[in-house]
Amino acid sequence: MQLLKTDVAIIGGGTAGLGAFRAARAHTNNVLLIEGGPYGTTCARVGCMPSKLLIAAAEAAHHSQNTAPFGVHIDGQVRVNGREVMDRVKRERDRFVGFVLEGVDEIPAENKISGYAKFIDEHTLQVDDHTQITAERFVIATGSSPVWPGFFNQAQDRLIINDDVFDWDDLPESVAVFGPGVIGLELGQALHRLGVRIRLFGIGGQIGPVSDPVILDQADKIFRDEFAIDPDAKVTGIERVDNGVKISFEEHGETKSEVFDYLLAATGRKANVDKLGLENTSLVLNPQGVPNFSQWTLQTETNEPAASHIFIAGDVNNYIPLLHEAADEGRIAGDNAGRYPDIRNGKRRTPLSVVFSDPQIGMAGETYRQLEQRLGTCGCFEVGEVDMTGQGRSRVMLKNKGKIRVYGENGTGKLLGAEMIGPAAEHLVHLLAWTIQQGLTITEILEMPFYHPVIEEGLRTALRDLNARLKLGPEAVKHCLDCGPGA
Ligand SMILES: Cc1cc2nc3c(=O)[nH]c(=O)nc-3n(C[C@H](O)[C@H](O)[C@H](O)COP(=O)(O)OP(=O)(O)OC[C@H]3O[C@@H](n4cnc5c(N)ncnc54)[C@H](O)[C@@H]3O)c2cc1C
Ligand SMILES: NC(=O)c1ccc[n+]([C@@H]2O[C@H](COP(=O)([O-])OP(=O)(O)OC[C@H]3O[C@@H](n4cnc5c(N)ncnc54)[C@H](O)[C@@H]3O)[C@@H](O)[C@H]2O)c1
């Protein structure tokens, strides 16, 4: 058994762990990074990047099949070569992973340990069966893993998760996707557009991360128009049959069955805490077994009188499981583990999220649900809205679908948040998150320049509507002449 002593031990070499490693090293050279699996990060290997590559191929197929309304006809067949699609996805994915690996290679060998770590007491980790590490402070950055209900296991070898999709050499004929959350929606729509027969099964009517019922209703209509999706499905059976997996479900009061090549479980993820031996520490755990922690310092809560020497960052803390948040949290946790006990509050940014469906779903600032809970009973916030079906630039490009809803505070006139489904949502929510973080009022935002004809003019209409409802501006004028046609 190798015995090692260090100032800071980082458990997990993903995005949060690598950020924590760098930040802790600014305080001490005695930092150990422990990685159980392959380096490369979830984001680059099986997450953000390969999913966006698959979506990019799907968009190319979709555009080339939908040129006729412009009077542009592709005579002949648009052919999707599944092998070439997957080859590009994997080739480009490997390139992104390669960049991460180059960074990992620069970390000196004596600062890296391979193996799965587990606490055996407050200050000691067992790594596989080969090493024990005693450390003054720790950062837990072990990420998350997919979860699914037990009855999915009836699909046996045809049950797959996102990781498996990015291992394919060719596209299958059909996939039943369970979970129209972020992963299911992105992958399901992309597969559909690449010619794979899909059916997307949800539960309780939820689609993506949307909390605003008006946007949810839009999403439901838009996606139902394009592919088979039931966000509130009644699935009555899952069975492994000779040629795949048979799913039985109710539709319009009838029981139907359909056979698919695979069942893709995209029904959520859970924090990787179960094998960490946290029961051997004094940490206070929530019902999911995740340590309680401060979102500002990433310091965990302990039963001991002394402040905790353990920090937790990234997906494993179940707070905001997104890449940029994992990176921020890694830096904050690593910095605090390095400087402990003189710890600091880190900078948390305005919440921002994007689903790369088409149309995209975007959210910035506080969600509708959060605002309803915080301000709903006092009539303290108002909602402005624009329907994108008539929006000039979107219509020109035949991207005129969806709605934008913006939320503002009565009295202060500040923008609080937004939810949307529609064109260029990935860009619009950035603009909104940036203005919310600066604490701008809707009036101040409306003083900014707006070009013509652009999708941002649609956002301006929603903001004008909001200002009028907050009684801080005139009624929004329908077809305002000084705005430019279709603004
Ligand atoms: C399909 C998919 C698409 C996504 N798309 C986006 C997107 O478009 N935009 C976005 O912002 N986010 C996206 N995400 C989320 C994003 O990938 C995660 O938020 C982010 O990767 C989390 O980073 P992390 O460092 O917390 O975890 P990870 O990168 O998973 O790192 C955790 C590491 O810990 C290691 N580990 C686990 N247990 C132990 C142990 N006991 N000992 C040692 N090592 C251990 C693991 O091997 C792993 O390498 C996506 C996720 C998925 C799955
Ligand atoms: N574009 C992005 O930023 C992006 C992309 C992918 C993933 N992610 C991150 O990864 C996280 C995990 O994504 P996810 O899609 O696995 O989780 P999710 O929580 O977003 O979605 C899970 C979905 O599965 C549904 N569901 C649960 N049980 C079900 C069942 N038995 N049958 C059918 N549906 C069921 C839920 O209602 C929900 O809609 C996301 O929260 C997000 O933070 C981000």
From TrEMBL:
Binds 1 FAD per subunit. NAD(+) binds at residues 179-186, 268. Coiled coil: none annotated. InterPro entries: FAD/NAD-bd_sf, FAD/NAD-binding_dom, FAD/NAD-linked_Rdtase_dimer_sf, Mn/Fe_SOD_N_sf, Pyr_nuc-diS_OxRdtase, Pyr_nucl-diS_OxRdtase_dimer. The active site is at 452 (proton acceptor). Residues 7-330 form the FAD/NAD(P)-binding domain. The keyword NAD applies. Residues 353-462 form the Pyridine nucleotide-disulphide oxidoreductase dimerisation domain. The keyword Flavoprotein applies. FAD binds at residues 52, 142-144, 315. Belongs to the class-I pyridine nucleotide-disulfide oxidoreductase family. NCBIfam families: PRK06292.1-1. This is Dihydrolipoyl dehydrogenase.
